[in-house]
Write a structure and sequence with these properties.
The protein is of the alpha/beta class and 104 residues long. It is built from four helices and four strands. Helices cover 40% and strands 30% of the residues. The protein has a four-stranded mixed beta sheet with strand order 1-2-3-4.
């Protein structure tokens, strides 16, 4: 189950906790879309994420690329090792660019 919290502001911060998988990907889609509406940048904080599968990773990559094409920067921070392992395996940094990651 995925729990989310949006910290509004000029640069909204989306806090995620739990699992990002096929069962929660629609919640993930809705939260990101809602939080970034009208912003030129947003931060996704993965501190509480315990699992991410290919559906969640694929949606995240799609968001990063689509928003970047629209001039909106989606930045990722506090990637736990379990998520970073999946990102490494799926080459997420190469796909979205190192500039999307705040913790390098």
């Amino acid at each position: 189950m995925l729990h989310t919290r949006i910290e509004p502001g000029e640069i909204p911060v989306i806090h995620l906790e739990g699992e990002i998988d096929l069962d929660s990907v629609e919640t993930f889609r809705w939260v990101i879309s809602d939080a970034i509406r009208g912003a030129s940048e947003a931060v996704v904080d993965f501190t509480g994420v315990t699992f991410i599968d290919s559906s969640g990773t694929g949606l995240l990559v799609r968001f990063c690329l689509d928003y970047k094409a629209q001039g909106v920067q989606l930045r990722l921070r506090n990637i736990p090792p379990v998520v970073d392992d999946v990102f490494s395996m799926l080459k997420v940094r190469a796909l979205v660019g190192d500039d999307a990651f705040l913790d390098q």
